[in-house]
Amino acid sequence: MLKTKYKDYIKSHLFIEYYFKKKRLYLLEELNYYKNINQLLENFGIFKNADSIANIIYKNILNDNLEFNLNNDWIDNIKFMYNNTIIAAYDTKNSKIINNKFNPLILHINKEKLLNDENSVISIIVHELQHAYEDYNRQIKNKENLMTSLLKNNYLKITKYTDDEIKKQINYILYFSNKIEQNAFIAQLVKQINNEKYNFNSIEEIYNYIKTKSVFKNYIKVLNWIDLYINCNDLDIQNNIINYLNNIINNNFNTYNQVIKFLNNKKEKMLNKFNKIIPKIIYNNISISEFLLPSDFI
Predict the structure, then answer these.
(1) pLDDT tens-place values along the chain, 298 residues long
(2) 3-state secondary structure of 224
(3) Residue 274: inside a domain, yes or no?
(4) Minimal CA–CA distance to 57: which of 2, 16, 9, 102?
């Protein structure tokens, strides 16, 4: 059975190190280009005021208020439905857009699981709101709705439970690397990092800080799993993965080199997206003048 060969992707791949060591001369210029963090996030499709909406939702969950009016730019009304099988989920089927606003936006929630940790709960709500926001923008522009897009990407197959460890890891790689989920995970990570003001004294401190965030832990876990299967030399496992991928994503992989190319592509896209935005989120929460020349810069 394969054992994961953990690598420190934080230090070897994280864009922060490259950004500080190779692009430090452009740091202030880029920060000046993005007037505020909301403008930056909007460039990545992350909606503004996520925190404030999620906090309102959280308070209504606490009070068992299962329906309330929000009346913002894209949501008129929000409804909750209790569900014991998930933590939280945006209801793509029953949420309705009327006159260019959700009326209602429906969220399924597991109140017992959600109320363990306020910060974690609100970041999960932000994740689901991002799905709703993306679906909203698709529908008002008469584009393919979120569920149709997910189904085309075999979402139901890759989120189906399996007790086979390799299949479980392959499923999670496909789930986490899906563009729609990546947007939601970035929105969730923004919530986990945003509003926490720190003065870091070294790159090492940034690494250690980010390591504590659950979204980033999953990101690193997925990168490690991808690396694990890229370097897999077990022919039986290789054949099993080829057959499994052909089954769940309707591909026609004939060789394991094709699988390696597929996984490398997934990895590079994730690295480019996450590592591009994470440093900028961090920079919004540190004192740039004090950190321009940290002690480990050379």
Answers:
(1) 333 333 344 444 444 544 554 454 444 444 444 556 666 677 667 777 788 899 999 899 889 899 999 988 899 999 999 888 888 999 999 999 999 999 999 999 988 877 776 677 888 999 999 999 999 999 999 999 998 888 888 888 998 889 999 999 999 999 999 989 998 998 898 888 876 666 666 667 777 788 888 898 898 899 889 999 999 999 999 999 999 999 999 888 999 999 999 999 999 888 878 877 777 677 666 554 444 444 443 3
(2) helix
(3) yes
(4) 102
CA distances to 89, 117, 184, 266 from 179, rounded to whole Å, are 17, 27, 9, 10
DSSP-assigned beta bridge partners for residue 82: 109
Domain count, the chain: 1
Under 8 Å between Cβ of 104 and 76 = yes
Range of the domain at 206: 9-33+153-291
CB proximity list for 230: less than 8 A, separation 6 or greater: 260, 263, 264, 267
Strand ranges (E), 18-70: 67-69
Q: Which residue has the tokens 């929460």?
A: 285
Specify the pairing of strand 88-90 against strand 97-98.
unpaired
pTM equals 0.84
The residue among 215, 217, 42 whose CA lies nearest residue 123 is 215
In a domain, 108, yes or no: no
> Which residues lie closer than 8 Å to 227 by C-beta, 6 or more apart?
5, 7, 9, 267
Asked, for residue 42, whether it belongs to a domain, the answer is no
Examine residue 97 and state whether it is found in any structural domain, yes or no. no
